[in-house]
Each structure stands twice: as C-alpha cells, then as structure tokens.
C-alpha cells in the first residue's frame, strides 16, 4: 500500500510539473517589406514548423488588408493545415472603442474568415485588452458566448514584436545584423519570459497548465521558431496543439476584475489572488530590450 501511495504521489508530481505549450501567431498576415517579403516569410515559417516537428499551430488574422499577397499568404497557412482564427478586422484598441463598434469590427472579420476551411471561432483580443469597463467586458463576453466563440487567451506573454521592430530598423539603416547573435538573443528572451509565467502559474494554481504562447507572424519568428521549439524541448517542454491547450481547466476561468491592461490568463489569475507586481516580466519592457539588443546583437 505504501508503494502504491508513493507511486501515486510521484505521478501527481510529474503531472503537475509536465510542461506543455502551444504555438500561436497574432496579426497574420503581418506587413512584410523588410528582411523577407511575404511569400518568403510564409515559406520559411512553414518549413521551420515542419522541419522541427511542430504540428498544428494557430494564426490569428486581421482582415482589414486581406487582399493580394496577404490573402494568399493566409491561405497558404490554412492550406498547410493550420488553424485560422479571428483577431478582429482592423486590430482596434478596445480601451478606446465603444462596445458596439468593437463588436461590429469582430463581426466583419468573422464574415471574411468564415470562408477559410480551417477557420475556428476563436477570438483573441488585440493587445489582450478585454474591456476597461465592466459593461464593455461583460458585453463582449455575452457576444462571444452568443456567437459560439472561444476567448483564445494566452498564458505566455512577450514582446517579440519589439525585437522584430529593432531588427527591421537595423535592416532599413543598412546595418549588418549577425543572425546567430540575434537568434541567441531571441531565444534567451523568449525562454526567460516563458519560465517566468510558468513559475507564476505553479505559484498560483499549483501546477504547470497547458500553456498558450503568444508570438507574431514576423520575419524573426520565421527564422527562429524551429530553434525555439528545440530549445524548449531540451528544457523538458512538449509542443502541443492549440486545440489541446484550450482543454485546460483555466480555459473556463473568468476574472471578476476589470483590467485596463491584461498580461494574459496567468496574469489575470495571479492578480485576482493578490499579486499586483511582476505581472509583466522584464522582457516586456521596450527600454530593456533596446539596451540588450544594442549590446548583444549589434555589438
């Protein structure tokens, strides 16, 4: 009996420590006029996902400029078997929008994306802002429920988009960027943030949940997403599908708080349990990233 109890305790500990993460990409199809053009980015990104055995991922699309090459790029991701989901029509900031205008924006994206075979009724709030008043927050919750939408939250936040900005600025200025240094910097920053939010989850819910990683459809993502997958696996992580990630119990969590700014689902839970600082990791600071980029990549 003692051996059985020990085995059960070890199993429970292993399950609590199991580290799983799904990859998701916002703002697809994002502007591509710097290091890569759009078709090259899409080809590189899909190659890296396949070569590093990352299965199904999700692309959260803005439909406001979905035509020509951008339309074809999003179709390319869908044709590869990846999920296409709703990130609004024009990426509005909910804090500065009236509820009905925001709903209409989401409806327009839904209308356009409904033609994609791999489209799922998942909505990710632009900027992760879910309503800065109770009326707006509850109004969107009601709308999403009524329309059969999942609130496609994230648990692992980062500012990868700002690293991309720094990279593209250097390219535009004709500065030669050492891509190996950039890769090391990107991986260290991303993994540091991932570990931070995983530890926050363990602190507040007692386990490592099925995580959802926020990334963006960008050049640095296309170059390094395979390296990120390998680095995470080397640290004991498993890459799972977004569909699997959203079966976690925290998918049902609804914060009673009204948050003007939202750090993600783990940040919500931590805030509601009394943590008021450290919700944004240091890697979500533009000055911090600029200093490190200058020192570690450009020098």
From TrEMBL:
Signal peptide: 1-18
Claim: Coiled coil is one of the keywords in the record: no
GO cellular component, one term: membrane
Keywords from the UniProt entry: Hydrolase, Metal-binding, Signal
GO biological process, one term: carbohydrate metabolic process
Gene Ontology molecular function, alphabetical: hydrolase activity, acting on carbon-nitrogen (but not peptide) bonds; metal ion binding
Record Pfam families: Polysacc_deac_1 (PF01522)
Domain NodB homology: 19-240
Annotated protein name in UniProt: Polysaccharide deacetylase
């Amino acid at each position: 009996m003692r051996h059985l109890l020990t085995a059960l305790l070890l199993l429970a500990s292993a399950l609590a420590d199991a580290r799983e993460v799904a990859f998701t990409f916002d703002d697809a199809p994002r502007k591509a006029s710097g290091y890569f053009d759009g078709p090259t980015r899409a080809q590189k990104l899909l190659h890296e996902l396949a070569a590093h055995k990352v299965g199904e991922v999700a692309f959260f699309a803005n439909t406001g400029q979905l035509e020509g090459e951008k339309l074809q790029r999003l179709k390319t991701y869908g044709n590869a078997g990846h999920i296409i989901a709703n990130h609004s029509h024009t990426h509005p900031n909910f804090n500065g929008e009236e509820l009905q205008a925001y709903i209409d924006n989401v409806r327009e994206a839904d209308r356009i994306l409904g033609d994609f075979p791999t489209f799922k009724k998942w909505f990710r709030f632009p900027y992760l802002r879910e309503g800065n008043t109770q009326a707006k927050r509850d109004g969107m919750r009601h709308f999403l429920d009524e329309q059969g939408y999942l609130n496609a939250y994230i648990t692992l936040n980062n500012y990868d988009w700002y690293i991309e900005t720094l990279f593209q600025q250097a390219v535009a200025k004709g500065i030669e960027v050492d891509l190996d240094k950039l890769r090391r910097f990107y991986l260290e920053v991303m993994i540091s943030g991932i570990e931070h939010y995983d530890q926050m989850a363990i602190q507040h819910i007692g386990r490592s949940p099925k995580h959802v990683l926020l990334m963006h459809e960008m050049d640095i993502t296309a170059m390094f997403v395979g390296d990120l997958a390998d680095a995470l696996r080397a640290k004991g992580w498993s890459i799972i599908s977004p569909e699997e990630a959203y079966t976690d119990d925290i998918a049902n969590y609804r914060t009673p708080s009204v948050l003007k700014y939202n750090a993600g689902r783990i940040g919500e839970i931590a805030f509601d349990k009394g943590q008021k600082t450290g919700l944004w990791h240091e890697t979500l600071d533009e000055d911090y990233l600029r200093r490190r980029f200058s020192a570690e990549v450009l020098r």
